[in-house]
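This follows on from our talk about sequence and fold. Go ahead and set the record down below:
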Amino acid sequence: MGITNGPNHVDEGTNAPGPGGTSVTQKSLCSVSETDSGHVTTADDLCRINVCGELYITTFKCLNKYPQTLLGSSERDKYFCPDLNCYYFNRNRACFESIILFYQTGNEYPPLNADLDLWEEEKEFFRITTHNEFAISVEDSEIESCSVFCSGSGSLRSKKKAVHDFLKNPRSSKIATVWHSIDIVFICTSIAFLIMETDPNLKKHFTDRHDDYYNIIYGVNAFVISFFTIDLVLRFLTWPTFFSFWKNIFNILDILSILPFYVGLIADLTGDPPPIETTTDPLTGAPVHEADKRYVVLRVCRIFRIIRIFKFVRHSQDLILIVRVVIHAKKELGLLVILLGIFTITFGSIMYYVEHEVNAQFESIMQGCWWSIVTITTVGYGEVVPATPGGKFVGSVVLTIGIVFLALPMTIIVSKFSSVYEKEKGGDD
């Protein structure tokens, strides 16, 4: 939001001359309450802060509410640069937006695209603390708003924020570290059960209710799922907004990962009615009774247990960063997929029409497309090969195109990936 008063009016996103005539980005960080509360904001009320070329504009009143912090005390004056006519800090820009957000809200919002250790270092440098009793009010209206925040709905909000930080940031407290460590151990346990359940020698321990180890394994699995459920429910109750919770892909994955257990529990509670007629299991092809069709649904649903491995991503900032980079590079990746699809269908169709009359391996265009994609990606399984001279010529062309196909787009993707990664990492300039 831009400042609408004063001679040095600056809107967010505008550029101003920096040292040596260079351009620096300016961001206005004044809230509505600071500019529309009846007080006319002048140039003398504004505080200009330059963080590695990024210019932030806020008010001294906003900063002075927290005198125990660096920006709220007179110590900030030693960072004032007369040549730039602003305060200059050679600090992390991604973290500083969260730093300035603390002054506006009184709450800590760690940046999602920065390392947690780096965030702790920045907080220590600016002497940021989330204890609201350190805040002092400048006007009576601010005292009233502060009292409302510290009691009633404000207190509930702060408690929800504390629980949310506890679940999200393992470094927020020692208990949070223990909680996240237990979560990682349970994820490993759940994945180990998933793998061992498919072993012929161990499968009976997971499926045979008369087995000596069945109750122990089922109890451990139920306890692990209960932990995942409690974690998910707490996240849902403390998430900032209802709709943003469902927009987070990790929350959806968490729901899908525990869904098979509860589906199986419901199936067990419904009992075993007598069989009616025999059908075929779509997964294994084995005969199954009509009354047991619900177990076919259960088997399909249990595939979602594989999703539990993605819960590891939530515990790694680097993995989250990789996901963000992939999202930013979706156009380049989309181009790669489109080109792959065009070449696959084109050469798969050509190979079918060249080979299908004399080569039974190319019995359809789908089989030709399978050969085409395996050849373009230079995998070359060798179970489907051309037999005619024309087919071999097409195969050599596809091999050559595959090398070029992998070289040119990947260069663009790697370049984009590197630039976005550096930007998301928010490293010091």
